[in-house]
Design brief:
single chain, mainly beta, 16 strands
């Protein structure tokens, strides 16, 4: 079992890796978002809570084996979600989905505009042969699906309009430190 959880109560972060328990503790601030790279020692952190450990507009890549931050990505606005994949970091902001390379000196690869996405909705799926990313499209009620292997849009799925306001609409399922500053303005 693998799970990661951040705390907005200032300093607790618990990581469960397989059968072992790892506790990374930042005594000087909270973690709002945690993403784990499969069962590896790499984690992505974004500060959160009343006293964030890191700015909410930065993604910090943590190597648990060395207990160090090995890379950081800085954006103009707050990060709402982060997902890690073998070769990529996917970052969600209110109106943008940004893809960067997962390496010590991350590179900006692609950016997609979205409709308002204040909850950071994102789905990332993939194996060795494919990698599919789904996130809100440019128009409300649309979903954009991107094949990250070729980085092309596969389709834009529109949410059907309900006939009654009370009836819910159908939802689609679906120790050097490098840094990058991404213009997402």
């Amino acid at each position: 079992m693998c799970a990661a959880a951040g705390s907005d109560k200032d300093h607790v972060l618990i990581i469960l890796l397989a059968a072992s328990l790892c506790n990374v503790e930042f005594k000087d601030g909270g973690i709002g978002i945690v993403a784990m790279l499969y069962r590896s020692n790499y984690l992505a952190f974004v500060g959160g809570g009343r006293n964030p450990r890191f700015p909410p507009n930065k993604v910090m890549l943590w190597d648990d084996a060395s207990s160090n931050i090995v890379a950081e990505l800085e954006f103009r606005s707050d990060v709402l979600n982060v997902q890690l994949q073998r070769e990529r970091i996917v970052v969600v902001q209110r109106n943008k989905c940004i893809i960067c390379s997962l390496e010590i000196k991350p590179r900006h690869l692609h950016a997609f505009e979205t409709a308002d996405n204040d909850r950071g909705a994102l789905a990332l799926s993939g194996g060795s042969q494919s990698s599919i990313l789904a996130f809100p499209g440019r128009q409300k009620g649309h979903i954009q699906i991107v094949d990250l292997q070729s980085c092309v849009g596969l389709s834009a799925v529109q949410e059907p309009q309900s006939t009654s306001a009370a009836q819910p609409a159908h939802r689609a399922r679906s120790h050097s430190r490098g840094s990058i500053s991404v213009d997402s303005g």
